[in-house]
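Q: I have two molecules that I believe assemble together. Could you output structure tokens for the complex as a whole instead of separate predictions?
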Amino acid sequence: MADKRKVWKDNFTEWFHDVILGAEIIDYRYPIKGFGVWLPYGFKIRENVLRLLRKLLNDSLHDEMLFPILIPESLFEKESTHIKSFEDESFWVTHGGTTRLDVKLALRPTSETVITPMIKLWVRSHADLPRRIYQIGSVFRYETKATKPLIRIREVTTFKEAHTYHANHEEALKQVEEAINIYKQFFNEMGLPYMISKRPQWDKFAGAVSTYAFDTLFPDGKVLQIGTVHDLGQNFGKAFDVTFETKDGRKEYVWQTSYGISERVIAALITIHGDDRGLIVPPNMAPIQVVIIPIPYKEKEQDVNNVCNTIHETLDREGIRVKLDDRPELTPGSKYYEWEQHGVPLRIEIGPRDVKEKSVTFVRRDTLERARCDEEKVVEEVVELLKNIQDNLFERASTWFKDHITKTDDLKEAEEKIGVGIVEVPWCGNEECGLKIERLIETRVLGTDVETEKAINHKCLVCENKACHRVRLARAY
Amino acid sequence: MADKRKVWKDNFTEWFHDVILGAEIIDYRYPIKGFGVWLPYGFKIRENVLRLLRKLLNDSLHDEMLFPILIPESLFEKESTHIKSFEDESFWVTHGGTTRLDVKLALRPTSETVITPMIKLWVRSHADLPRRIYQIGSVFRYETKATKPLIRIREVTTFKEAHTYHANHEEALKQVEEAINIYKQFFNEMGLPYMISKRPQWDKFAGAVSTYAFDTLFPDGKVLQIGTVHDLGQNFGKAFDVTFETKDGRKEYVWQTSYGISERVIAALITIHGDDRGLIVPPNMAPIQVVIIPIPYKEKEQDVNNVCNTIHETLDREGIRVKLDDRPELTPGSKYYEWEQHGVPLRIEIGPRDVKEKSVTFVRRDTLERARCDEEKVVEEVVELLKNIQDNLFERASTWFKDHITKTDDLKEAEEKIGVGIVEVPWCGNEECGLKIERLIETRVLGTDVETEKAINHKCLVCENKACHRVRLARAY
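A: Yes, here they are, computed for all two components at once.
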């Protein structure tokens, strides 16, 4: 299938803004820059995304909890790398009423410094470990760069952060692997393609030993980081003096990991699957999976409505999220437009001919193809089509993603391709060469894929010494 | 059944603190006063409570949304009564990083001033009305009084606030009635007794025309307000200049209501049903409805475990929230203690005698009564018992509540009874007399019940003029 997404590709920023508001996802006209309001339809997509995420985490022995939004400065500054990175981009509460507070309070930008001191109260011995917890809520970043809906915002309203605590480094590293697997499943279910890179040392999370990140690609050729997993080593354990008694009676600092996902995944869901008509929500995540639209025709209105009602009930009984749009004041055409914009994956049209022939007409949102089937087979057909749409969206997205990755040993080609996607070039592994290439071709070093191809027979693109890995480069949000 | 709750009654504050932490509801040892951490077990109770609340609201055409946590001072101060009441008890953000912000931002204490300006963007004509929305999230109060777990806190983490918008006052008043009905259902499902009072003018919500409140009673004789419903008239509509075009083409200010519930309902759920052994969670809200405890006996361990596993699977398959506690390192007695403290409504014990006789032993958490039944009838018996426990808890609570309401025309009796419960006395309806009685017998005027008994043949307890209503008095949290 040829990709006919023109506005989507050529004028992505405009397309994105139009879809966010047109499909009633979120409204950023609130009078503080970077703060938005989730609209009912967007909120339902968010709920479906979070339901999946909660299920994956609960099934893998994570406990959901809820921690305070404010952090006293005295806690926040305990881990020195961490505070250095976050203090300038935090909002600070200084007053309660007209009273100046004794200790400034930060609106949490992330919760390592909130949770670790509580862990100190709860963990005494190796028997209290491992412990895996998560919370979903708002975090805040005082962004000074231009904000962008769902991507660079000041109140991140949908931050899922998991924090785990372990008795040794091996166990923590196994947890890092498990977290990566959980996120893989999560993105697969949403039909989002990604690559996982170990971030270079100069771009890891503040306070981490190492950071693994999931990146996806947008139509403008920029990557979006949609998930991160951190091995925190004992950095926070030491800063907060969290020790436990080992099996052989020693005191040891706790080992820690953390991993996060935000509403950026919803930005990705919208972008990766959308087209020039608007949103296409994968059936798994769709608030409405099927919309039924009656095509009335004079003197046949009642017959058409009866069939629509029957089919609505039948699908609803099967647990399919179905809506019958029987608003009499709107034409079928304007309903098509509205639900296409909102990305409902499957439309059923029922007109006098369908009634007469005991059939229904389908229109798929992804391919816009029409088909008909017998009325009595409607459930099987809907189930089959929704599955096909889900698979097709993922396939289309994956193909597009792969088509925009270029492997090259040539600096000029790298420079050309960097505007349209991801480029993989040989690298010696030195920070100096990494930073140099970031400047040379105006890019960001995403990091290396530790799982795949070494590049030992190639030369570093910068210093021409022996390369060890291919490093991934791209412009990034 | 005689009420044997001694510590609960005589030393309520201590009891409450012990249960909150002992049953792992919430941990207030976070280093900012009035900020707590929801523990996994408490979080699950919270989830069950919110699931019920969401269902009731969604079924009555409310849309869930999410609004920003911060309010620019310029918006916050638009409704003058509102800001006067809230400005001294708000937390204020003044800095982003080291930069002083141009406009101070308040952490929302409630969201009328967040939502109304957005409504102005969304509502143009009568066809856009009514509109019913709600959100669940944190609100903040800079409390200067002593804080109390779940009751008087600085981060209210579980604030459900609904806001509705209407074309005329009649419709808004009908919504007030509907909101009251929704809350009645909500509290009934949780087995919480309440009375609904129209708050006196001097104690209504800042910015409201009138406020209706749900109060319940605690063992120390104090009432706790657990829900409020406000008719806001056009006060916010005028302050924010939100108009719509009526059917006959006029401009009119929008009519508004709002209503809220917070984690105080969880404080009530814990308190109202608890006893000297700890929590008793009503089956509807229980994270674990049934706990199975094997009673091992030498050489019979395997048989006992097999039966436990079978019963666990059987109940789980029926959708009952069941847990098998097969930790080998703990004695049955310590497991009883733990799950009684956590309020699991029903315990199943299975020992060698049960295995031999193909029976199971039940212990109800509410009455601590033991019973046995055939193994093959276990599902019916569990379903029946859970229903009985649910009903019995509500009945016990309702009886206790009614027993602590005194109707009197005698000031001395009123004064005596005010320490143990609610007192209803005749009142002329004048604010002056209301405020005087608050001082005279150290109480709070809860308000009047407009539905029931007038008191026209009685004299106001203060001025001795003709009374119009009985007014309710109690000490209050």
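A: One point stands out. Chain A touches chain B through 51 residues (CB under 8 Å).
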